[in-house]
Amino acid sequence: MQHADVFTDYVQPFQIEAPGLRGRLVRLGPAVDDVLDRHGYPAPVAGILAEALAMGAVLASGLKYDGVFTLQIQGDGPISLLVVDITSDGALRGYARFDPERLENTGPGPESPVPRFLGAGHMAFTVDQGPDTERYQGMTPLEGATLTDCAHTYFRQSEQLETAITLCAPSDTGPAGTLRSAALMIQRLPASGTADPDEEDDDWRRAVVMMSTVSAAELVDPHLNASDILYRLFHEDGVRVYRQRALRHACRCSRERVERTLCSFPRAEVESMAEDGRLSVTCEFCKDVYEFSEGDLESLWALPPNA
């Protein structure tokens, strides 16, 4: 029996009982609303950023890290930049840059959103675990019609596990004025050496085919919980779900962080950005504004290095 359920933000890890197949389902609702409400993006920008948020969350959820995972997508289209980052404790944020005039001239239409709105460019993944650790980075060109296609390109070109992924942020399934997004990913672990290779190949192909039958509407349906969706897809082989990991929208900006950033620039450069002795700094992620008077700026220069 299905039960209506509040649409929350989470990662649902799972394992298909066929040997060597694991996956994760990400569903985002309130986090997407929080990100989009602060910016008032046009529909094409909101939709593709909502998908990018789900992509960032599902990719990060497969990594063991203590820090920040960042997904950055740059292109020469009317949407020039998408940035999503997520901390190891589930704090998610994101923003987009776009050219309103070029976007308007592009016209409506959901077909091929990557070449249509992002154009030619690249997608980069970074894991930053702090100043005393080596940063991991992966990069792939924007190849394909959708962000799902671009993700598949990345996994094909990297030396990582065989991966199938689907992303969605349908515009007609949430309450008026809201968006939900979701990502479903399955991965094939290295061969166990104990099973028949042909059977393992068949298990993988069957799982990919079954995954491809899920609709965007099902992935964001609040009347279906994660277990419902995964059982519908993989019950013939058996599926085991593990504890959900909560996600949430949260920005890490603060006045102290802004002060440290300003101190990293030459004083003349910072003063050139001020108007009538006052400087306003707006966080691109959350749109919070930090105001600095002439006296505030003087105090910054009086701080000792690395304060």
Report on this model:
The protein is α+β, with helices and mostly antiparallel strands and 307 residues long. It folds into two domains: 10-249, Hsp33 domain (3-Layer(bab) Sandwich); 255-302, HSP33 redox switch-like (CBS domain Like, Alpha-Beta Complex). It contains eleven helices and 14 strands. It has helices at residues 30-37, 43-60, 100-106, 113-118, 147-157, 197-211, 216-219, 226-234, 255-263, 267-273, 294-302, and strands spanning 10-16, 21-28, 68-75, 79-87, 91-98, 121-128, 136-141, 162-168, 181-188, 239-241, 245-246, 248-249, 279-282, 289-292. The strands form three sheets. Strands 1, 2, 8, 9, 10 and 11 form a six-stranded antiparallel sheet that branches. A six-stranded mixed sheet has the order 7-6-3-4-5-12. A two-stranded antiparallel sheet has the order 13-14. The longest helix has 18 residues, at 43-60. Residues 1-5 have low confidence and may be disordered.
